[in-house]
Design goal:
Number of helices of chain A: 9
Number of domains of chain B: 6
Number of strands of chain B: 16
Radius of gyration of chain B: 30 Å
Number of domains of chain A: 2
Structural class of chain B: alpha+beta
Shape of chain A: globular
Strand content of chain A: under 5%
CATH architecture of the largest domain in chain B: 3-Layer(aba) Sandwich
Strand content of chain B: 15-25%
Number of helices of chain B: 27
Order of helices and strands of chain A: HHHHHHHHH
Distance between the termini of chain A: 64 Å
Largest interface: A-B, 99 and 98 residues
Radius of gyration of chain A: 18 Å
CATH superfamily of the largest domain in chain B: von Willebrand factor, type A domain
CATH topology of the largest domain in chain B: Rossmann fold
Helix content of chain A: over 70%
Oligomer: heterodimer
Distance between the termini of chain B: 65 Å
Number of strands of chain A: 0
Strand order of the largest sheet of chain B: 7-6-5-8-9-10
CATH class of the largest domain in chain B: Alpha Beta
Shape of chain B: globular
Helix content of chain B: 25-40%
């Protein structure tokens, strides 16, 4: 039946999206919500939302769509958590526990690990723009979409963030 | 293209994000410029490091149950666009889905619950397909359009159903949001029915809620499924905090009454849920707040002049926020209404070039007393763009005593200072002085192109010892004076929890010390951290005497606000000793009342006295003051005011010709340049155009709602007809764009306050 075919296609499409973006998206969400559990929940909801989109509406900018929706939901959750008594201080504390440790592998470059730690000392929007660029691999325009700002501002954020990091790392 | 222009574009160039024309220009410059080539190499190396580091971060995986759920969602057709199905049809639908889903690898119980949830999901999805179309047409993936409606409508629908989680033995009541939604509502359920923001599991409100089930272990995957399928929002409540509590968390929720932090640490004084009930705490004194008496109504004939110093501190708002999100109403003395209002940005017209600030006045109806008028005075300081900020010399004066040893104190201080330093450059310098058992210089004044040295010094700080605040202050000011930048920004930034309990503890001596140091021309920023021992009153006064501003940093976002977003405002003073004097026209004003600023009042004579200290305005700051005015008009009753005996040696004052004008008041401002000693006067008359409250600007409405909020928190007798619902409604009207969500956060706080007050 037609219905069955399109359901099958849809399932494949969603499954591919989950495979391709799921893990990184969850990592991204964890930065915003502060703990892995709520991050997983947020990402799960994001993909369920995806199930309700028409394929042709979203294809072509699937990544940006997923990150945008995920981000908005994560921020909502953050706000609600605050209101419900889990003040940001507790997020700070759980963040300390939940933040992924620097790469533990034997060959891991110490400088890379340092850069990662310093990334979190940058202003939040700079750190986020940098992650979207260097981890998720988005273009300035795509990042602008996710963050709800202009490409020019994204360029500024990344430039400023890198500049500070360079000064602190004293790379040579 | 020169080096500076190129420098700005180098990152975009390295990442291949520059449009062609610019790329060619940069390339041309690079061909001849060794320095820029080196910078480019630096950028590329840093980018590579980041890529490497970020690639090494372990990703988080979704659980198998979650993936299965998503697959299920992908397999289910959304409900067609129509009226939401009546319950019996929903039940049938549920059965169909349950049957179909039964063959998947989930337990049938889980599936049954999920199926019910899915039916709801489908129904709500049916209500929103047009919304998602609209969003697409606008080219935005605006979550709000498609999705924001959903939790609320679902909640409203669920409101009259038995909570499914009670059956499953889980805790809690349905969490709802009382705000009316713009989207389509499911039939049959009035949206106002659910109570506002019911929170469970935190023991902060004695409400008729099923006590949280003691679930000692983490929820299993199955339970996560349940959580997802039913009330999304209530899941946040249900997930029992105790499971995840670290000792630190435990401590953070203990707002200890007396002895100090150690008591809280051992946790003995806490109740079963790690909190103290709201009623116990108010009025206890580990945190110190001055008593504030509301300004009363004053008769305009006998008291024509109202004089006060401006205030740009925002600490009271952060502090009140801290209380409310922690589940307690703040003590009256912690609520300084002017600081609540001034926390927000308002769109006042900026000054002309060369002027330090501009003033504007708006007069409209008073929302809590319909016969009264409200006059809003707004002052906007000159905006200084980040690259035009003068060279800056800062001394961080950091409290590293034992009491600072908590995650929301010293570590937050370090994080905040790093954010601040990130915005400084080679023309700026930073020194670090700490005080604990003694005071010492940890970092000599260092230019900010050496970020790594500054960061290293910050990272090396540990808490320990008791506090010798006085000695630290002296050393900090000496360092600041030694590294003074003429014509630049010179400031000491004090970070502390206020616990000066060794050395100079006498408050007035401390203040005298600060006052004399302020004469050196170095300004002061005081930042409070932590809870339990915040000496709010002392810290505010320190800032006051030190020509400074006082902020309270309860979390990282607040640090971002002060040190990233408002860096220029925090650092750069554009006018000093700013005083306001308002003269009211008795022919138009029967009586008036200044809302807030109680501990900023000045005598009338102080206005022209340049030796009398007042507040400072930072770049881009707005200052707002509200007067409630009883106008001369029919049927407007005179407020109850104490009488003054008529004078024996003087005749009663009579009105001048100016009183016959249509002016209601004249606003006078005096201010000095940041390094000046002589004040300059500006005057603005204002007339009342009879605007009704409904016609007032959005900012006016929002400021009024914050004022009402403050009055309610203070149990003020002047709150008129205002109640929490009024506050929420008015704030909603005044919300506007609210790009950073601060006004929305305020509305959440008002709802929380309403819940806590039980009204």
């Amino acid at each position: 039946m037609n219905d069955d075919e399109s359901i099958g296609e849809r399932r494949r499409w969603v499954a591919e999206a989950v495979d391709r973006y799921g893990d990184e998206l969850t990592r991204y969400a964890c930065r915003l919500t502060g703990d892995p559990e709520s991050a997983r929940d947020v990402v799960q909801e994001t993909f369920v939302r995806l199930c309700r989109q028409r394929v042709e509406q979203v294809n072509g900018h699937l990544g940006a769509w997923l990150y945008t929706v995920c981000r908005n939901r994560a921020l909502d959750v953050q706000r609600k958590e605050k209101r419900m008594g889990r003040a940001s201080e507790t997020v700070l504390a759980t963040q300390a526990d939940a933040a992924p440790p620097p790469p533990a592998a034997a060959e891991s470059n110490e400088s890379a690990a340092r850069a990662l730690t310093m990334l979190d000392d940058l202003p939040a929007n700079q750190a986020e723009a940098i992650r979207l660029k260097f981890q998720a691999g988005f273009s300035y325009r795509q990042i602008a979409h996710v963050l709800g700002t202009s490409a020019g501002n994204v360029g500024f954020l990344i430039h400023a963030g890198l500049k500070t990091l360079r000064a602190r790392l004293k790379v040579n | 293209m020169n080096c500076q222009q190129t420098e700005e574009k180098l990152t975009a160039f390295a990442l291949e994000e520059l449009p062609d024309a610019q790329r060619r220009k940069v390339q041309a410059h690079l061909a001849d410029c060794e320095a820029c080539r080196a910078a480019l190499a630096d950028i590329c190396a840093t980018a590579d490091l980041l890529r490497e580091g970020l690639a090494g971060e372990p990703p988080l995986k979704l659980t198998d149950a979650q993936r299965a759920l998503i697959e299920l969602a992908a397999s289910t057709r959304p409900w067609p666009e129509s009226v939401p199905p009546p319950p019996h049809v929903r039940a049938l639908r549920w059965l169909a889905v349950a049957a179909a889903a039964a063959c998947l690898m989930l337990s049938s119980a889980a599936v049954a619950w999920w199926g019910r949830g899915q039916a709801d999901t489908d129904r709500v999805a049916a209500n929103s397909p047009n919304a998602s179309d609209m969003a697409e047409r606008r080219g935005q993936y605006s979550y709000d359009d498609v999705l924001d409606k959903e939790p609320r409508t679902r909640l409203a629908f669920e409101g009259d159903k038995k909570d499914p989680r009670d059956d499953a033995g889980k805790s809690g009541a349905v969490v709802t949001e009382g705000a009316p939604t713009p989207g389509p509502a499911p039939t049959g359920t009035p949206q106002s029915a659910p109570p506002d923001v019911g929170v469970t599991g935190y023991g902060d409100v004695p409400s008729p809620v099923t006590p949280p089930a003691a679930s000692p272990s983490r929820p299993t995957n199955e339970e996560v499924v349940l959580a997802f399928s039913s009330e999304k929002d209530s899941k946040w409540a249900r997930r029992d905090d105790r499971d995840r509590r670290s000792p630190l968390l435990h401590f953070s929720e203990a707002l200890t009454p007396d002895e100090g932090l150690e008591k809280g640490k051992d946790g003995k004084k806490l109740d079963a849920q790690g909190r103290e009930s709201p009623k116990d705490y108010r009025g206890l004194n580990a945190e110190e707040y001055d008593r504030i008496v509301d300004n009363p109504f004053l008769d305009s004939m006998g008291n024509p002049l109202s004089t006060f110093s401006i205030d740009v501190d925002t600490a009271s708002y952060s502090n009140v926020r801290r209380y409310l999100t922690g589940g307690q109403l703040p003590p009256h003395g912690a609520v300084r209404i002017e600081e609540l209002i001034n926390y927000f940005h308002y769109d006042y017209p900026p000054p002309d070039d060369g002027e330090p600030f501009a003033a504007s006045i708006e007069i409209a109806g008073c929302p809590w007393d319909l016969k009264h008028r409200l006059a809003r005075i707004g002052i906007k300081g000159r905006v200084i763009p980040a690259d035009k900020r003068p060279a800056t010399s800062l001394v961080f004066l950091l409290d590293v005593s034992g009491s600072m040893d908590q995650y929301n104190k010293l570590p937050l201080v370090i994080k905040s200072m790093k954010k601040l330093v990130g915005g400084l450059g080679e023309n700026d310098r930073v020194a670090i002085v700490v005080y604990a058992g003694a005071a010492g210089q940890v970092l000599p004044s260092t230019t900010c192109d050496h970020q790594e040295l500054i960061v290293k010094a910050l990272d090396g700080l540990h808490a320990g010892g008791s506090t010798a605040g006085g000695a630290g202050i002296q050393l900090a000011y000496k360092t600041a004076v030694d590294n003074f930048i003429k014509g630049g920004v010179n400031r000491v930034i004090l970070c502390t929890d206020g616990d000066f309990n060794v050395g100079v503890t006498d408050r007035s001596e401390l203040l005298r010390m600060i006052e004399s140091n302020a004469k050196s021309g170095v300004f002061l920023t005081v930042l409070g951290f932590g809870m339990g021992n915040v000496k709010d009153a002392t810290l505010e006064q320190l800032a006051d005497k030190g020509n400074g501003n006082y902020g309270y940093i309860d979390n990282e976002k607040e640090a971002e606000k002060l040190f990233v977003e408002e860096l220029s405002g925090t650092l750069v003073t554009i006018a000093k000793d700013v005083k306001i004097q308002v003269e009211f026209n008795p022919k138009r004003v029967v009586a008036y009342r200044l809302i807030g600023y109680e501990n900023r009042m000045l005598r009338a004579e102080d206005f022209n006295d340049d030796t009398k200290d007042a507040g400072e305005i930072g770049a881009g700051h707005t200052v707002t003051a509200l007067y409630e005015i009883v106008p001369v008009a029919d049927q407007v009753a005179k407020p109850v005011m104490a009488d003054v005996d008529p004078l024996k040696y003087q005749k009663p004052a009579s009105l001048a010709d100016a009183a016959d004008s249509d002016e209601m008041l004249t606003l006078k401002l005096r201010a000095k340049e940041p390094d000046g000693e002589v004040s300059k006067l500006t005057q603005f008359p204002a007339r009342d155009g009879g605007k009704k409250y409904g016609e007032a600007s959005r900012d006016f409405k929002f400021a009024a709602s914050v004022a009402a909020f403050g009055m309610l928190l203070r149990d003020s007798q002047y709150a008129g007809t205002a109640n929490w619902d009024t506050v929420i409604e008015l704030a909603g009207e005044g919300k506007g764009d609210d790009a950073r969500g601060r006004r929305a956060e305020f509305i959440d706080l008002a709802k929380q306050a309403k819940k806590l007050s039980g009204k």
